[in-house]
């Protein structure tokens, strides 16, 4: 009975929340300037910001980065604070400064917050959701059934290390479970359009905005078109890091592969934090929201006996993730063994959930995390 009621409520909310997005756009439209020149400046600034964010790998709500809704709300608030701004670059400059000087996690919103209305955003409900996501220990345990005997040795060794560092890991996850960057939609029911931002992605967004502001100031001071072009172009993702991991999901055919890879995509953001960033030498991970490949897998990616079943009619998808590691990190055999434990943990947790939910044969799908050095990343993932 309770489950049926919860399903009915969730289905109703699923219809209400998109309507809230539509109503929010109407409210924002009413607040925006009516003069043709001012609205042109506003729209140009929003488009330019989106292009800049995409080109700098910080645009993509699903992976915990900025969304179009969040940027629209922030830019609208900035217009309301500075209605006489008459330059695209000036309004973007103020966007950067507002983001960097805002007292996060103080909620960023237009109008007022009415937390007395049912289903509207509230601090305690967001905190509860974040704690469930990052601190709930009742998830599916990693399933080590199909792990090689050799791998089981370093799994045991790494688990013993984790017991020693349990306190530090809990403190790390607590940072993600706190309020990070609530940006509230103006219409009922209010939602946080930046709920997916976590401690790691917030750090990446802030650093990128600092670099963006620095570049913008150069443009405003020099008026050189070349600097403007470079600022818009941004930094290619593979030039941001020295170490990477390629996430590969594969299904035995296209239908299974697409379903499985969509399932994986929806869980990458959280599992990077829960599993991969547990590795002590990894400060944070950064998935590229814009770089992915799909289709038939290259054999180099699924070599080995365990992938033999996938050599013919497979369908796979790949993502590239930057790893922010110490400069002197050396991918030696010792570190390879250590890092592979966290790769396996990531794999087993996602695959285990998929098999449980879909009731599918475990041999019909696979995930592979593959360490990728900077040379391989440039070759297969670079812009050129």
Automatic annotation (TrEMBL):
GO CC entries: nucleus
GO annotation (BP), single: mRNA processing
Poly(A) polymerase central domain location: 42-119, 156-222
Catalytic activity line of the entry: RNA(n) + ATP = RNA(n)-3'-adenine ribonucleotide + diphosphate
Top-level EC class: transferase
Record's keyword annotation contains Ribosomal protein: no
Protein name: polynucleotide adenylyltransferase
Organism: Meloidogyne enterolobii (Root-knot nematode worm)
């Amino acid at each position: 009975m309770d489950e049926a009621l919860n399903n009915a409520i969730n289905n109703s909310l699923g219809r209400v929340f998109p309507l809230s997005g539509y109503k929010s756009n109407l409210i924002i439209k009413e607040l925006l300037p009516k003069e043709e020149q001012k609205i042109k400046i506003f729209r140009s600034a929003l488009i330019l910001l989106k292009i800049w964010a995409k080109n700098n790998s910080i645009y993509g709500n699903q992976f915990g980065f900025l969304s179009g809704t969040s940027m629209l709300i922030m830019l609208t608030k900035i217009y309301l604070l500075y209605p006489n701004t008459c330059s695209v670059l000036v309004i973007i400059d103020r966007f950067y400064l507002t983001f960097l000087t805002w007292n996060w996690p103080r909620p960023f919103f237009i109008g007022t917050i009415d937390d007395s209305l049912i289903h509207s955003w509230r601090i305690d409900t967001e905190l509860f959701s974040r704690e469930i996501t990052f601190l709930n220990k009742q998830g599916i345990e990693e399933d080590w059934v199909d792990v090689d005997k050799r791998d089981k040795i370093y799994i045991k060794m790494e688990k013993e290390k984790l017991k020693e560092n349990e306190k530090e890991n809990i403190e790390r996850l607590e940072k993600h479970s706190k309020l990070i960057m609530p940006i509230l939609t103006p219409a009922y029911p209010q939602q946080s359009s930046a709920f997916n931002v976590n401690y790691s992605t917030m750090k990446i967004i802030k650093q990128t905005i600092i670099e963006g502001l620095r570049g913008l100031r150069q443009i405003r001071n020099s008026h050189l078109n070349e600097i403007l072009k470079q600022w818009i172009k941004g930094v290619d993702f593979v030039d941001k890091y020295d170490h990477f991991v390629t996430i590969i999901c594969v299904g035995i055919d296209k239908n299974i592969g697409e379903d499985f890879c969509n399932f994986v995509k929806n869980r990458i953001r959280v599992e990077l934090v829960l599993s991969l960033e547990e590795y002590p030498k990894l400060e944070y991970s950064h998935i590229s929201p814009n770089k992915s490949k799909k289709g038939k897998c290259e054999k180099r990616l699924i070599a080995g006996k365990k992938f033999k079943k996938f050599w013919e009619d497979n369908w796979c998808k790949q993502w590239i993730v930057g790893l922010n590691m110490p400069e002197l990190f050396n991918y030696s055999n010792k570190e390879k063994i250590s890092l592979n434990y966290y790769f396996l943990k990531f794999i087993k947790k996602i695959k285990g959930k998929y098999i449980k939910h879909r009731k599918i044969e475990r041999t019909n799908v696979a995930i592979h995390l593959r360490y990728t050095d900077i040379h391989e990343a440039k070759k297969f993932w670079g812009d050129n």
